[in-house]
Specification:
By secondary structure, this protein is an alpha+beta fold. About 30% of the residues lie in helices and about 25% in strands.
Length: about 375
């Protein structure tokens, strides 16, 4: 039995560790660890108070290896991997939140505007401690996502811990199909007109929609400047972040990525030409601005092309790739990191605003009369 278990463990670990590493000078130490793990599994099987499903234990072990690397790498069982693909077909409802892992706890990176989570009052930085009365601490990111999935129109209860709030908060949210309108645009003011551009995500049409709105503004209006609102934008496609940044920059480096493979180490530069002809630009950010949002705001800040206003961004400066596995599952693995033109990493630190303006009031809502950050930006452009 011990030998069989060792074979099972080796099979699982080979998913994560290359054969070249196994035959390195550290291979003996590695095999000793594998043997130790096999012994632990056998002891659990014989001595643990309840019967355990060996396959589930192995899934947890694989996921533990990945989560020890960073908060964004994770294992997806065949069921979870299939569920992720099903979500894209619209057969299941969602809440409209981007989540990550922090010290074994599920953390909200960003609620997406006009989705069930945002409308219910979920905020960036919230910690999810229970899903339908089930404790989530110790669960993987994939397991938490699976618990939150469900039929459209069905309800889910989230128990939240929020910074500076003593008591846990409870939210009842109804699942829905999440359709994100990437760009919202409007003209603010009558005498001194300002172009307001709210970019909610970086999907495949974001740059096209954004540039189309701006070009329309430029033809029909004499604008004094622009506000690019990236608050609660969890990110998306790197290509779109590069295109959006390029639109506002006249030249210079936008971002670089560095990974172990040569193919993952690249530098991206702006082409000649500024889409708004050097007009004043303010970018509003907050803790829910992550990944691609940080590339745009960070590059524009480094080149002094825009004033960055609001709160510190999330600090997600890494690229993940979904890699299918032979068992029908998959792994989400970090393959490279982003670096700003200054050479600084976005990871954990994020982008700091030039002007720090914290959201004020319990009734605060982006792009409404209660939005003090937007009001500050408007007043700054009009002054």
């Amino acid at each position: 039995m011990r030998k069989i278990n060792t074979i099972i463990v080796l099979t699982a670990i080979n998913i994560l560790i290359s054969s070249s590493y196994l035959h390195s000078k550290n291979s003996n130490e590695l095999y000793e660890k594998i043997d130790l793990f096999s012994e632990v599994l056998e002891t659990i099987k014989k001595e643990y108070v309840d019967e355990v499903e060996q396959a589930e234990v192995m899934d947890s072990a694989i996921n533990g290896v990945l989560q020890s690397l960073d908060p964004y790498s994770a294992y997806m069982s065949p069921r979870s991997f299939k569920g992720m693909q099903t979500d894209t077909k619209g057969e299941f409802g969602g809440l409209g939140i981007e989540i990550g892992m922090e010290s074994g706890v599920i953390k909200v990176i960003s609620p997406i505007d006009d989705t069930p989570a945002s409308n219910a009052g979920i905020k960036s930085g919230d910690y999810i401690v229970k899903i339908n009365e089930e404790q989530v601490q110790g669960k993987s990111l994939t397991e938490a996502v699976e618990l939150m999935r469900g039929p459209i129109g069905s309800e889910i209860n989230l128990t939240i811990r929020r910074k500076n709030v003593k008591k846990a908060l409870n939210f009842k949210i109804k699942r829905a199909i999440i359709e994100v309108k990437s760009v919202v645009a409007k003209i603010i003011g009558k005498e001194k007109k300002i172009g307001y551009l709210r970019l909610k995500s970086f999907n495949e049409n974001s740059y096209k929609q954004l540039s189309k709105k701006i070009n329309k503004f430029e033809v029909n209006n004499k604008l004094n400047g622009y506000i690019l609102d990236l608050r609660n934008n969890p990110g998306g496609l790197l290509t779109q972040a590069i295109s959006v940044t390029d639109f506002f920059l006249d030249d210079g480096e936008i971002v670089s990525t560095k990974g172990r493979k040569i193919s993952e180490t690249r530098r991206f530069f702006s082409k000649k030409g500024d889409g708004i002809n050097g007009k004043p630009l303010i970018v509003i950010i907050n803790n829910g601005s992550a990944s691609a949002s940080e590339i745009v705001s960070g590059a524009l800040k480094d080149h002094k092309r825009a004033i960055i206003l609001g709160e510190n961004t999330y600090g997600k400066g890494s690229v993940q790739s979904i890699i299918p596995l032979k068992n029908g599952g998959g792994i989400r693995l970090t393959i490279s990191k982003y670096y700003l033109p200054s050479g600084k990493s976005i990871s954990e630190v994020g982008v700091l605003p030039d002007i720090y303006v914290e959201e004020v009031g319990d009734n605060f809502k982006i792009n409404t009369e209660t939005d003090n950050q937007l009001k500050y930006a408007i007043d700054l452009l009009k002054s």
